[in-house]
Specification:
mainly beta; four-stranded antiparallel β-sheet; 28 strands; about 45% strand; globular
Length: about 350
Amino acid sequence: MTTITSLPAAERTGAPRGASRVRRVLGVVAAAAALVVTTGLPAHAAPTPVPLAPLPGGTFSGAYGLDDRGVVVGFSENRAGQRHAARWTPSGRVTDLGTLGGDTQSEAYTVREDGTVIGMSTRPGGPDRAVKWSPSGRATELPGLRDATVTRGYVINDAGTVVGISSTPAGVHRPVRWNPSGKVTALKTLPGDTTGGVGAVNDAGVAVGYSGIPGGVLTSMRWAADGSYRTLKPLPGDDSSHASWINNHGVAVGHSYVTGSDLIRPLRWDADGTPRALRLLDGDTGGSSWGINDKGYSTGYTYRPGGEAHAVVWAPDGSVTALGSPTAGSGEGYQINRHGVVAGYTTKDGATRATAWRP
């Protein structure tokens, strides 16, 4: 299975502000943990959220990705008050993955079935560096483009290809791909565009993301394994979109919007590129989808005019189901595995915790 979180929306997408974002400062935290939640499951099975405990001494945590075994990755505050990449076993035991040498903070975005984890490492005033953690926990830097100030790895596929972003010296993000030996290559953006990013790659090496101009129109992109690309259209009436995930059948998800608007809409692209709107929860006005499994179930959030987000799962027919929150506050789903287990977060009054759901 291919894996990501769905990753930091604000950095990965350039989407309008107002809706929840992925790379946020998360708040306070959590209790016990075990894996959890649902789609593709009987309609009567009510999703049960289970918070994932932070590292010892920490007060908050957040989850971005998981694999088909139920291992979850994300980040947690540690005893020293630092944000460190974290990994949770299916039984809820948390491990600090640490940082690259000289850094003090890190985040993990996805995990492959063999235990390889992809993410980033940084320190105050220092560059963001892409990291690959081996199954044993050894951290190795993935090199960025020349003089990059920001480099992050987001997803690794079964063949060992990693995708993410690496910036120009001025900090403008560019879409990149690393081959299994760690060599980085910039992917093409549309002529005239200066920025871009890659959100996910499937096991065939097909990647999705966006191309655009900072603060301007974003165009969803689909890159083939050979680096050639095609564009993906937004929903009718919109001029911008961002593709965040693609499954092994070539079906992608993301969000669509009008440039400059705070209203974003969740959508799915069929394998032929046809965009289809995903339904919203009653009373909600927008949302985004961040992950889709090979069965066609996707996860993300929908939100109300005030901005409160609700973690959801969409069935292959586009119908939507709310994922419960232990705090009755906001929440988002970032990744869904083939068993329907969802990883994400829930929060209320600034207190945020890594959360997983299962029936």
